[in-house]
Amino acid sequence: MYFANLGGSTKPDVTVGKALSESFGSVETWEKEFKHIGAGLGGGSGWVVLGLNLHTGLLENYWQWDHANAPSATLPILVLDMYEHSYQMDYGAAAGNYVDAFFRNIQWQVVASHLQKAFKARSVWIS
Fold first, then answer.
1. What's the whole-number average pLDDT of the chain?
2. What is the pLDDT of residue 14?
3. pLDDT of residue 64
């Protein structure tokens, strides 16, 4: 899922932007929180995940550690690899620069596709 998220340079489409704003107050607030989680993982290990909570229907940011701990009833929409191997060679200890580069390269069309699939799964989940 990580590599599929990469390769773009556009902004979130209307659907993704609306969902982020409904969940976080604004796209900018979401981005700031997501980046803070990533910066906190610099030099450590784990993933930052934007996921759709199937219970609430809201998007939430999570830290996933060791490829094993994920929130239940949540579908990933966007993932950021914060294991050192993902950025050390290019960015050294400057994990924040890696996170900024990630944001400049998000493939928002793929994120929108993940979100639409998650909304469909939620409609089945709550019915």
1. 89
2. 93
3. 85
- pTM listed for this prediction: 0.91
The low-confidence residues of the chain, meaning pLDDT below 50, are none
Structural domains in the chain (count) = 1
Residue 65's Cβ-count burial label (10 Å; 0-12, 13-18, 19+) is middle
In a domain, 80, yes or no: yes
Whether the Cβ atoms of residue 53 and residue 121 lie closer than 8 Å to each other: no
Q: What is the pLDDT of residue 114?
A: 96
Residue 42 sits at the vertex; the CA angle it makes with 38 and 43, to the nearest 5 degrees, is: 155
Residue 127 lies in a domain: no
Which value, to the nearest 10 degrees, does the dihedral of the CA atoms of residues 69, 12, 35, 9 take?
110
CATH number at residue 17: 3.55.40.20
DSSP string, 35-102: HHHHHHHTTS--EEEEEEETTT--EEEEEE-TTT---TTEEEEEEEE-SGGGTHHHHTT-HHHHHHHH
